[in-house]
Amino acid sequence: MQGKVELYTDGACRGNPGPGGWGVLLRYRGAEKELYGGEAETTNNRMELTAVIMGLKELKRPCRVRIGTDSQYVLKGASEWLEGWKRRNWKTASKAPVLNRDLWQQIDELVQTHEVSWEWIRGHSGHAENEKADSLANQGIDELALDGSGAG
Question: For residue range 24-62, what is the model confidence (pLDDT) as tens digits?
Fold first, then answer.
């Protein structure tokens, strides 16, 4: 396993569903990389999951990764619910289909390569890295709006 990587992820949506964005602050050996993007019609949870996926896809070799998120949905899904969903063929405990299964399956596949730990961060509480990920997610939405108006 390579050195420790920190991923701070966030998703945002204006309307739920509505235009959404995702942001990632990746830190490795003191260097930082910022990633962001957006989708015209999505949900906040899909953007939270997409941020994790895009951050993990950026890693070129197996790493020890700490993922910081302000989303209880992401944290609990990844650390508590995922194994049960797989055992039940992607059904919840109440037998309903798992929402966002396509994204959860990508996360499940991506975390197999790495040694991943999850950390919950209280959103909008002044945590610098979480605030940066939030800002990047909103930048993803802002640039979608620009692209949609013919600018750019």
Answer: 999 999 999 999 999 999 999 999 999 999 999 999 999
Alpha helices in the chain (DSSP H): 44-57, 72-76, 82-87, 101-111, 128-148
- Count of CA atoms in the C-beta half-sphere (13 A) of 37: 14
41 Cβ contact partners less than 8 Å away, ≥ 6 residues apart: 17, 18, 19
Annotated active-site positions, please? 10-11, 48, 70, 124, 134
Under 8 Å CB-to-CB from 96, ≥6 apart: which residues?
none
How far, in Å, are 21, 44, 45, 77, 120 from residue 73 at the CA level?
17, 10, 7, 6, 10
pTM of the model: 0.94
3-state secondary structure (DSSP) of residue 27: strand
Give pLDDT tens digits for 92-106. 999 999 999 999 999
Bigger pLDDT: 149 or 14?
14
